[in-house]
Every structure is written in structure tokens, then in C-alpha cells.
Amino acid sequence: MKLSCSKTLSFLLLIFIALSFGSLNNGALASQAVFNELSNEAIEHYKKGRYKNAEAKFLEAIEEAGKSTAKDDNLYVGLTNLAGMYKMQSKFALAEPVYKRAMLIQQRDFGPDDLKVAVATDNYCDILMRREKYKDAEEYYRKNLALRQKKLPADDSDIGKNMVNLAEALEEQKSYGEAVALYRKGIPILQEKLGPNDLYVARALNNFGTLYKKQGQMEQAEPLYLRSMAIYEAKSVNQPNIAMVAANLAEVYRKMKKYEDAEGMFKRSILLREKALDPRHISIAYVLEDYSAMLKEMGRVEEATAMDERINNIKLLYNEADAKPVTKDGKLITKDSKK
Q1: CA–CA separation, 144 vs 293, rounded Å?
Q2: How far is CA 189 from CA 160, 169, 207, in A?
Q3: Pick from 93, 132, 89, 100: which is nearest to 2 by CA?
Q4: CA distances (Å), 202 to each of 73, 90, 183, 233, in order?
Q5: What does residue 152 show for φ and ψ, rounded to 5 degrees?
Q6: Which of 31, 156, 180, 294 is within CB 3.0–4.6 Å of 152 for a Cys-Cys bond?
Q7: What is the Rg, in whole angstroms, of the alpha carbon atoms belonging to the chain?
Q8: Contacts of 90 (CB under 8 A, 6+ apart)
Q9: Is 337 helix (H, G, I), strand (E, B) or coil?
Q10: How far apart are CA 195 and CA 188, in angstroms?
Q11: Which H or E run contains 230?
């Protein structure tokens, strides 16, 4: 189970920026004021759960920004706000073209070699990863890395993040050798620049551990997961991502035949998910499946059978028509965060 290439957040990701009025003429000032008002209204609707109203206001703000022929950030900001709302709702198919349009606008306004384009491209890549378009994401991440290595110091944290993101795209395509090399380069940069206890470091360590787990290298995976968990635990014992790392460690210990340790981690992961989510949430069923399989290996068939009944009940309640809040590899672990 992996954490997303995006920051794992449980709050609104909208990036509304109140732009300066200083150099605008009267007509532009009026348009700017309208754009700001519409964007603020949209964000307030979103915070109160009025998503249709928020969408309508974001679209109005984008329409207002599109009236200007000047090179300003309004259209980019408006599009990114709308796409960010779609992403927070797991409406990735809707977010993808909006993020792409925002990226192309930055390319048009600043040229392909501007670091602002790299930021917009990262947003687009995140959606490509969520939609399992790994080859496309790889291509853009490579371009971003080349740009950042050209423009930034070799140990800049954005280069470290880019390396980790590219590693994740390659890992999904089973290009494990290059992915390992990128993790080994990127993680030390993040530890040095962001600090050894930064949440981005925790995410990278977890995902590096998952790469080793996929290859059956449990001894290499275990210390990475333990370090990741320690970082999350230092932030909060109920930090949702602890549930993800615990499930990963459970699988590692299961493969190592350390069943007592594995069972403790399975129970911890399930308990944390039950606290953060509905007890019938589909992600809990996925952990229970692995737990049940281990119980059968241990000969505890009666317990496993009861667990299988709970799994089936959860799956019956799960609406496949929903926006796939969780996938089998744990890409989403809360209503508002991925993996």
C-alpha cells in the first residue's frame, strides 16, 4: 500500500490567491474584484459542503478571468481552484482536463522553462497517477526533473520531491531498478532540506518500503516502514497514515512468518480506520482480507470465516457507482486524502 504522490491532506487544497491591485487600471481593477469575490464565495460554499454552489461560483470566476487579455494569474488560479475541488471530491476524471488546461496556460504565459510551469505540471501529474496513467505521468515528471536540475541547486527540496514522484511512477510500471536509484537519491535530499521528521519524508519512506515489499525484500522494507511510522506517530497517534503503514508492516511480518507482530499491526490498522472512517468503509475490507488470509495460514479457520462474513457485508454495502474512494492498493485512506 502506497501513499499518494501528492501531499496527504485532510483539509481543503484550494489555492485562492488575493492578487495585488497595484498596477491595474480601473477596468482591470473591477474585473479583479469580481474574480476575487466569486472565488471567495466559492470557497465559502465548499467549506459548508455546498459543492454544487461552489462549482458554479468557480466556473463564474473562470469565465470572468477569461475575459482579460492581460497576462495575469487569475485564469490559472481559477482553474486550479476548480480542479482542486474536484480532486478533493475524488472526481479525478473531471479534474484531469482542468489541471491540464491550467498547465498549458502557464506554458503559454511563461514559456516551457519556467519553474511556475513545473508546479502546474506537478498538479497534473498527480491526477494522472490517480487515474493510473503512469507512463504519461513519468514523461511529465522527467521533464520537470530536467527543468529543476537546470534551474535549481542539486540539493533543492523540489528536486528531491521530483525524484520521489518519478520513482513512484516508475514503480507502478515495475521499473524497480531505476525507481530504487531515485528513492536513494531523493530521500536524503528531503531529509536534509525538510528535516528527518517531515511528513513528506515519511511518505517517501513508506513508498520506498512498498517497492521492496513488492519485490519480496521484506528485510529491506521493514526498517523503512518503521521509520515512516515513527515520523507519523510523532505528529499524532491517530494520524490516518499510521493505519496505512501498519497494514504494510502487517504484510511484511506475515511474509516473514512473524504472525504475532503481524496480527498486532492488522488490528491497529483496522482500529485506526474505524475511528477515521465509517466501520463499513471499503478500505477496512481490504485490510480484513489480508488479515483473514493470515488467520487461515495459521489454522484459525473459524475466526477467518467470521471475518470473511464481515468483508462480504462491507462489499455489499459499497456502491461501485461512487467515485471509487478507495482502491485495492490503498490509494485512498480517508475521505479527503489519497493512499
Answers
A1: 42
A2: 5, 19, 16
A3: 132
A4: 33, 23, 12, 10
A5: -120, 160
A6: 156
A7: 22
A8: 323, 324, 325, 332
A9: strand
A10: 10
A11: helix 218-235
For 94, the grid coordinates are 473531471
Interval 185-227: pLDDT, tens:
999 999 999 999 999 999 999 999 999 999 999 999 999 999 9
Percent of the chain with pLDDT over 70: 84
* C-beta separation of 246 from 268 below 8 A: yes
Separation in Å, CA 289 to CA 113, 210, 250, 285, 296: 47, 18, 12, 6, 11
The Cα–Cα gap between 272 and 244 comes to 9
- C-alpha grid cell for residue 37? 469575490
* Whole-Å CA distances, 192 to 102, 208, 230: 32, 17, 18
Distance CA 62, CA 56 (A): 10
pLDDT in tens, 307-329: 999 999 999 887 543 434 433 34
Residue with cell 468557480: 58
Tens of pLDDT, residues 74-125 = 999 999 999 999 999 989 999 999 999 999 999 999 999 999 999 999 999 9
Residues in the chain: 339
Cβ neighbour number for residue 50 with a 10 Å cutoff? 14
C-alpha distance across the termini of the chain, in Å = 7
Neighbours of 3 (CB within 10 A): 28
Q: How far is CA 14 from CA 70, 86, 229, 335, in A?
A: 23, 10, 28, 16
CATH numbers and ranges of domains, the chain: 1-17+24-131 (1.25.40.10), 229-339 (1.25.40.10)
Chain center to CA of 184? 21
Q: How far is CA 311 from the centre of its chain?
A: 26
Q: What is the average pLDDT across 139-161?
A: 98
Number of continuous H segments (helices) and E segments (strands) in the chain:
14, 2
How far is the C-alpha of 213 from the C-alpha of 210, rounded, in Å?
Answer: 5
The alpha carbon of residue 23 and the mean position of all alpha carbons in its chain are separated, in whole angstroms, by 37
Ramachandran region of residue 125, left (φ > 0), alpha (ψ -120 to 50) or beta? alpha
